[in-house]
Amino acid sequence: MEKMYDITIIGGGPVGMFAGFYAGLRDAQTQIIESLPELGGQVKALYPEKTILDVAGFVGVTGDELITRLQKQLDTMDVDQKVDTKVTDVVKKDDYFEIETNHGVTKSKTVIIATGNGAFKPRELRADNAKELTGKRLFYSINDLNQFKDQDVMVAGGGDSAVDMALMLEKVASKVYLLHRRDEFRGLEYMVDRLKESSVKVVTPYLIKRLDEVDNRLKVTSKKVKTEDDEMAMMVDDLVVNYGFISNNRQLKEWQIQPALDHRLIEVNQTFETSVPGVFAIGDQITYPGKQDLIATGFGEAPTAINVLMKEIYPDRRGPVHSTSLHRK
Ligand SMILES: Cc1cc2nc3c(=O)[nH]c(=O)nc-3n(C[C@H](O)[C@H](O)[C@H](O)COP(=O)(O)OP(=O)(O)OC[C@H]3O[C@@H](n4cnc5c(N)ncnc54)[C@H](O)[C@@H]3O)c2cc1C
């Protein structure tokens, strides 16, 4: 007989991964469906080398290490993990949902949407020759710090991640510049304080206009903000641009189930149920008053959603206690 899952988790970012583990603790028949070739979401794809400071229990953990640990935790449970599989539609049937993907259709009693930022990509630099130099001297993420060892590197951007990247690069690079179009940085106060104490040279308020490869190095030409033609050229080896990310969440509008949205985010109640009964949502994809897009927040949302939906599916089953009594191997 065709398998009927209790829970289908759409999206295998950190929040979907932890939800999968917790669903396993509750003995739920669970599948996680992830469109990328591996689990880990934004953390794995966009900042594997960054040190994350605000996950409970870790003084600091790199993105890669956190995902490795989540994967190990998830692997202790009997949860079907389907990667390279994109959910293309969710269809409501009488008392279950059909989950359509590019690899076929499965059935599930409930759904947890954990699609985060959807399909995301870095916001690109608009400057002459930027396209031609992408991947050669211009980068949008740091996958291997050693690539920048003993190089002169410029980071462009003014948010948390840009400050973080500059501080990360300081450990291996010969010289790091941080160029921003404003005089102030939007990063966490703690990071900005560390920036002030560091050897990173801050260059403000400038906007990059043009890139040229000269003698195997990169000439970065920038214009001073609010001036007519006050230009400056700097020579570096590499440029890392961190102007944030553009996400595409239009996919939700293409599904047959239509959870209520606030702009592009799913509205949920206090138990993370959407306007569609049986469909829950957690992580960066949702909105509620005071919602913070953080890993720690999503980790907290998962057990609430799962315990509530388990009560809906199995009203007679004993409710949750502590993890040690839920699962003994
Ligand atoms: C540069 C940067 C630095 C950050 N630093 C921190 C930090 O220090 N601390 C912190 O707490 N947070 C940080 N964040 C935020 C944190 O990464 C997010 O809050 C977290 O990743 C949210 O997890 P998620 O599982 O909800 O979503 P995501 O990580 O976005 O994962 C969602 C997953 O769903 C998949 N998906 C989407 N659509 C489909 C579909 N149709 N079918 C199948 N799969 C699908 C995606 O491929 C993705 O893997 C940072 C974010 C960025 C970009």
Automatic annotation (TrEMBL):
<dbReference type="Pfam" id="PF07992">
    <property type="entry name" value="Pyr_redox_2"/>
</dbReference>
<dbReference type="InterPro" id="IPR036188">
    <property type="entry name" value="FAD/NAD-bd_sf"/>
</dbReference>
<feature type="binding site">
    <location>
        <position position="284"/>
    </location>
    <ligand>
        <name>FAD</name>
    </ligand>
</feature>
<feature type="binding site">
    <location>
        <position position="324"/>
    </location>
    <ligand>
        <name>FAD</name>
    </ligand>
</feature>
<dbReference type="GO" id="GO:0004324">
    <property type="term" value="F:ferredoxin-NADP+ reductase activity"/>
</dbReference>
<feature type="domain" description="FAD/NAD(P)-binding">
    <location>
        <begin position="5"/>
        <end position="296"/>
    </location>
</feature>
<feature type="binding site">
    <location>
        <position position="47"/>
    </location>
    <ligand>
        <name>FAD</name>
    </ligand>
</feature>
<keyword id="KW-0560">Oxidoreductase</keyword>
<feature type="binding site">
    <location>
        <position position="120"/>
    </location>
    <ligand>
        <name>FAD</name>
    </ligand>
</feature>
<dbReference type="InterPro" id="IPR022890">
    <property type="entry name" value="Fd--NADP_Rdtase_type_2"/>
</dbReference>
<dbReference type="InterPro" id="IPR023753">
    <property type="entry name" value="FAD/NAD-binding_dom"/>
</dbReference>
<comment type="subunit">
    <text>Homodimer.</text>
</comment>
<dbReference type="InterPro" id="IPR050097">
    <property type="entry name" value="Ferredoxin-NADP_redctase_2"/>
</dbReference>
<dbReference type="GO" id="GO:0050660">
    <property type="term" value="F:flavin adenine dinucleotide binding"/>
</dbReference>
<keyword id="KW-0521">NADP</keyword>
<keyword id="KW-0274">FAD</keyword>
<dbReference type="GO" id="GO:0050661">
    <property type="term" value="F:NADP binding"/>
</dbReference>
<feature type="binding site">
    <location>
        <position position="42"/>
    </location>
    <ligand>
        <name>FAD</name>
    </ligand>
</feature>
<feature type="binding site">
    <location>
        <position position="87"/>
    </location>
    <ligand>
        <name>FAD</name>
    </ligand>
</feature>
<protein>
    <recommendedName>
        <fullName>Ferredoxin--NADP reductase</fullName>
        <ecNumber>1.18.1.2</ecNumber>
    </recommendedName>
</protein>
<feature type="binding site">
    <location>
        <position position="34"/>
    </location>
    <ligand>
        <name>FAD</name>
    </ligand>
</feature>
<comment type="similarity">
    <text>Belongs to the ferredoxin--NADP reductase type 2 family.</text>
</comment>
<keyword id="KW-0285">Flavoprotein</keyword>
